[in-house]
Amino acid sequence: MRAKTFISTMTALFVITASGAIAGQAANTGDNHKAAPGSSAPAAAGTYTVAQVYAKKSELKGRVVKVHGNVVKVLKNIMGRTWVHIQDGTGSEGGNKIVFTSKNEAPEVGSAVIAQGTLETDKDFGYGYFYSVIVEDATFSK
Fold it and tell me: Which pLDDT tens digit goes with each residue over 81-100?
């Protein structure tokens, strides 16, 4: 029974590269919504991965960026905004998701989206809410 439960809550994609190495991405559809450590997701055309945004945050600051990923958390009407957490399986602890804020839109948790907005860095909202990377005025498409 345990194996059946595991299979029903986990979706995985594995690719064997030309060198014989195995690259994989696992998307947990259970309650914790965490991607497999060290996995990577292919970026949609014209988009950045979460890891790329963190790596290039200085040069992307103030620019419009697009990220293709999965919605893992949505918080509505906090400080007049909707806060959408996106993961794509890239990045490491503390840099494996990006928060997008929007005044209008709220995609559903579990949906795959292309999120687009203006990248800001080192944003401090006070009360312990500090973001080294955050994308504001976001829009979402599938």
Answer: 999 999 999 999 889 999 99
Distance between CA 42 and CA 96 in Å, rounded? 15
DSSP 79: T
How far apart (Å, rounded) are the C-alpha atoms in residues 48 and 41?
10
CATH fold of 43-141 reads: OB fold (Dihydrolipoamide Acetyltransferase, E2P) (2.40.50)
pTM of the model: 0.69
The H-assigned helical ranges of the chain are 2-9, 50-55, 57-60
> Strand, helix or coil at 128?
coil
What is the domain partition of the chain in residue ranges?
A: 43-141
- Give residue 46's pLDDT: 82
Write out the DSSP string of 48-60: B-HHHHHHTHHHH
> Using an 8 Å Cβ cutoff, are 50 and 68 in contact?
no
Q: How confident is the model at residue 44 (pLDDT cuts 50, 70, 90)?
A: low
